[in-house]
Design a protein that fits this description.
This protein has 5 helices and 25 strands. The chain has about 350 residues and is α+β, with helices and mostly antiparallel strands. The protein folds into 3 domains: about 100 residues, Immunoglobulin-like (Sandwich); about 110 residues; about 55 residues. The longest helix is centred in the middle third of the chain and has 21 residues. The chain binds zinc ion (2 copies). The site of one zinc ion (ZN) has 7 residues, from helix 3.
Length: about 350
Amino acid sequence: MSFCVKCGAEGPVYESVCERCFLENRQFTKVADHVDLPQCAHCKDFSMEGKWVTQPTVEAAVEEAAIQSVQVMEGAQVVEVGAEVIEADKLNFRVNMQLAVEYKELRVEEERDTIVRVKNSVCGRCSKIKGSYFESTLQVRSRDRKLTEKEVDAILDRVQSMVEEMAAENREVFISKLDRVVGGAGGADVYLSSNSAGKVISRNLAEQYGAEVKDTAKLLTKREGKDVYRVTYLVRLPAYRYGDVVMFRKRMYLVGATRASNAKLTDMRTGESLMFSHGDLQDAKVIGMKDEMLDAVVLTETTKEVQILHPTTMRPIELRKPPRFEVKKDTVKVFVYDEEIFLLPK
Ligand SMILES: [Zn+2]
Ligand SMILES: [Zn+2]
């Protein structure tokens, strides 16, 4: 049987003394008189444990900050916390905490008080936003074609949702400025707070639209001994889009699926499909846009031919079907070019 070296009581000992002697004048937790809690004046986020975070209410932030400030004796752990937040004024709060602490087999209740002072501050993101800080620019343009408002809208929607997704992971990612190119060939300039965001988004647009990306970097500053570059990503959308008809190497093609590096073209006369790189296709000239294709009513169909009503003259006309061509509905899509009419291949 062990006994206390201080009072002689028999029973389990902690550092050679009994529970009562061990707990006498001993505190397992401590808190400072005051805890400062920086709050961003703009976005209202709080700085907690070195990170800016959103909190549902000031009281919730105050309670959290008080609990985080509790220092615990080595070997002990706080297993339960109850806290009461009492507002002294708008910026000062008294927090009373009931802490259940476990140390070896002992469980102790301690009560601690502190004052949390909310301090007006500005977070890194807001100071960057205020200063119109940007690390990369996304320049969206098109090759030999005017970008329509609708196309620019679709691209900007895509960019914005990607930025939102990235911001959920990293609050330092934001759009610093967004300019639409007015007049000329149209397009947009998007200024981004982060370089890597520009890189990821430009690659994504390249993949989505078969666009070509060119980047140019300029040294912006040094941060923590590292060079920080400001990069301009020029995203150039090809002149052609899915569903357009192009003239390329003296042949007429329907543009099929476009990918980051190439596009599928189907010969309008032979129905033959080929893949070409966007680099090769720089000479391709758009002669018909997707929304310029017309519907023609089908009158009769044989294995080799189809008789349709010419969509502009309304006269019946017979057309030879390209290989593998199928009539699926009462109408077929046709393209009228130089008074000639073409069935759109499959
Ligand atoms: Zn004792
Ligand atoms: Zn802020």
